[in-house]
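Suppose a colleague, Dr. K., hands you the sequence of a protein chain of 477 amino acids and asks what its three-dimensional shape might be. Before reaching for any lab equipment, you can write down a predicted structure in token form. Begin with the sequence itself:
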Amino acid sequence: MKNRDFLDIPRVDASYRPAAERLRDYAEVEVHPGRDVLAVQAGRCMNCGIPFCHAMGCPLKNAIPEINRAVAENRMADAWALLSSTSNFPEFTSRVCPALCEGACTNGLNLEAVTIRQLEYLTVEQAFADGLVQPRPPRFRTGKTVAVIGGGPAGLAAADILNKRGHLVTVYEANGKAGGLLRYGIPDFKLAKQVIDRRLAIMIEEGVEFVCSTRIGDDISMAYLRRHYDAVVVAVGTPVARDLAVPGRELSGIYPALEFLTRQNRIDSGEGFSGEPISAAGKQVVVIGGGDTGSDCVGTANRQGAVKVTQIEIMPKPPEVRSASTPWPQWPYLLRTSSSHKEGCVRDWCVATKSFDGRDGKVTGLRAVRVNWEFSPDGKPLKFTEIPGSEYTIEADLVLLALGFVGFSLEQAENKFNLKLNGRHWFETDGHSAASFPGVFVAGDAGTGPSLVVRAIASGRDAAAAADAYLGKDGRP
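The predicted structure, expressed as tokens, is then:
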């Protein structure tokens, strides 16, 4: 590692398998740089006196400069020891995290950020290859029991930490397999499900019990869990998709994005599902919503054989470079183009959906209008107005709504979980994960609203720490 490496060595990004090849399957698309290349890339880290990648960028507070130095010096076991001390599942985040740490990298102030996510991928996969990732059951059991509701990233992180603290942990999952959004929402071409199964096998050997195909409030009551467990962690994610209440919404062929993605993931894994398959084969597809979920719909629709895929977004087109509204070290507001977009997609911004057209009960298109945005002095979008006379029609045989998620209903909160809601309709907490009922804690999106996998894992760790403090030491060393 040399003092000028961050100046003299250009950034080397990951690449993708050729589009014509990857569109024929659902295998992971990313091609990661080799170990030798990444060892050189690690040398670009300046080992800042105040590492903003750690302090502001990473919700898990990974010791990024120290990990980078260990990789640069070929001390891969040390790199893994550092990474695994703060991150439960770096094999997940190194594949699907947008790398908030890179947005806060000091190099990014006027150069290119360090390839932190790729270095994380190398560290964890090398650790698996070298046999460093092994089941390590706790040496001491407290005798206390914890139920974790939800097997997504937040619930898994909470379960992992609480098990390591010696408690007996049971994870209740509504789906047939644990993983939550990681398994059923994120396509295989971004996160192969074998990666999830590999980690679950370790957790099981370490003593975590998984009870799947079990819905709290239907199969088992919250009251039952409170009676039979010393603590409960609620990590049920964001189950309700935001809908689009416009004329024609009742037409067939219009689906929430997650329903579309989940069915394809179940097909890929050989897992069954109720209802008819949702296929884009031979269809003109419109994806409403410009975020990551919308991008995943684009990639999946293309793999299914869509004739044309159009993605529309009501927000304005982001700038090509970091906006002044998000100065370093904030996460930069700028245009991002995913591997799915590069496989074939028409993208359009400043478009609002007014209604859906149909024939014989099936959607045939949507009526849209262009909008004009008003910006703050630093370039932040504030509000929009429709442009008179800009109405137009987009043909569509399949429409996917990737509009995010909304909070819980009062009925869900009271009847299924017996918990209070905050003003935004997520489960209320005291600011330290504790819910409105003693011994119950909230982790992940259920308490904060929809966010990133890495933030869900961090929240799961926080909830586990709060639950562990509630349960007490009980003679542990």
